[in-house]
Amino acid sequence: MGDNHTSVTEFCLLGFPGSQELHQILFAIFLFFYSVTLMGNAVIIMIVCVDKRLQSPMYFFLSHLSVLEILITTIIVPVMLWGLLRPGMQTMSWTACVAQLFLYLSVGTTEFALLGAMAVDRYVAVCNPLRYNIIMSSRTCIWMVIVSWVFGFLSEIWPVYATFQFTFCKSNLLDHFYCDRGQLLKLSCDDTLFTEFVLFLMAVFIIIGSLIPTIVSYTYIISTILKIPSASGRKKAFSTCASHFTFVIIGYGSCFLVIIRYGSCFFLYVKPKQTQGAEYNKIASLLVSVLTPFLNPFIFTLRNDKVKEALRDGVKRCCQFLKD
Question: Where's the G-protein coupled receptors family 1 profile domain (predicted)?
């Protein structure tokens, strides 16, 4: 990647339409969401690290999920907030655009892989409880997390490299609040059809690859729960995976399980040109980078008794410390 491949040295982000007053309102709203997201996910990471009751694979994966949520929102939201404060268009250098797109896609792919790993963990917990500690050993969990992170970042090197090999000569205006791949490909004067098709296939592979363990795991989980004779037993078994299942439903989207979370594979990251819609793109991006990370702490605290107990004890210790 270099300047000989493009006539553009910087991009102008159009951001959100509307008056400066509207931008100030949006700034306040998004700043609130961002602040709560950072604090909520940071609290989850902290209590998982310090509370012995949460020293299990489920919460180990949860802490990494919270790290990913912090990253995915931090990659996008600060730039978006800065654009809302500045009048006119916001400029971003070619290098910064490459870095932002790569990190955004890599973190999103890592989160997909981690959700699949968490589904497998819940399957073992419900369907093989007696062997859970043996199967989901600390060594196994660490390797599952490492593979998720490595796969997420390595899998996006070529797609981002291929995107910035095109010549961007039509314009340098991106109708978005971050360096969106679909908008970038619209600026190219080259024939991008084959590359877009390859990127499309890669996205489908990543999504299907993460969905298969999730679907298979929950098929066995539901089958096992339905065989439990007592209602209290079924409720207890389902509660062990309710938070993850809720996050999967929200993350993959209410209509098509893949549309929202991964930037809608077909529409947000690698969608063909004829399907690009700037307004849809922005809304979907907001769901990915603002709403879902914001909901994560609430999903895993309000539906999890152990986390709530750890939070209460942590608050009591803090209050006691301040009194002393």
Answer: 40-300
Helix (H) or strand (E) holding 299: helix 292-302
Is 203:162 a contact under the CB 8 Å cutoff? no
| Domains of the chain: total | 1
CA atoms within 13 A on the CB side of 114: 31
Residue 176 CB contacts under 8 Å (≥ 6 apart), including other chains: 13, 14, 15, 183, 278, 281, 282, 285
Identify the domain containing residue 108 by its residue range. Answer: 3-323
Q: What percent of the chain has pLDDT over 90?
A: 25
pLDDT digits (tens, 9 = 90+) for 50-73: 888 888 888 899 899 999 999 999
- Distance between CA 11 and CA 319 in Å, rounded? 49
Q: What is the CATH number of the domain that holds 71?
A: 1.20.1070.10
Q: Tokens representing 160?
A: 């981002």
pTM: 0.84
Specify whether the CB–CB gap between 170 and 186 falls below 8 A: yes
Angle made by CA atoms 159, 95, 28, in degrees to the nearest 5: 95
CB of 34 closer than 8 Å to CB of 194: no
321: confidence class by pLDDT, cuts 50, 70, 90: low
| Range in 10-14, 37-41, 75-79 with the lowest mean pLDDT | 10-14
The answer to whether the Cα torsion of 300, 305, 306, 307 is positive or negative is: positive
What are 291's two structure tokens? 């709403």
DSSP string, 224-261: HHHH-SSHHHHHHHHHTTHHHHHHHHHHH-SSSTTTTT
- The single-letter DSSP state of residue 13 is E
Among residues 271, 130, 138, 187, the alpha carbon closest in space to that of 10 is found at 187
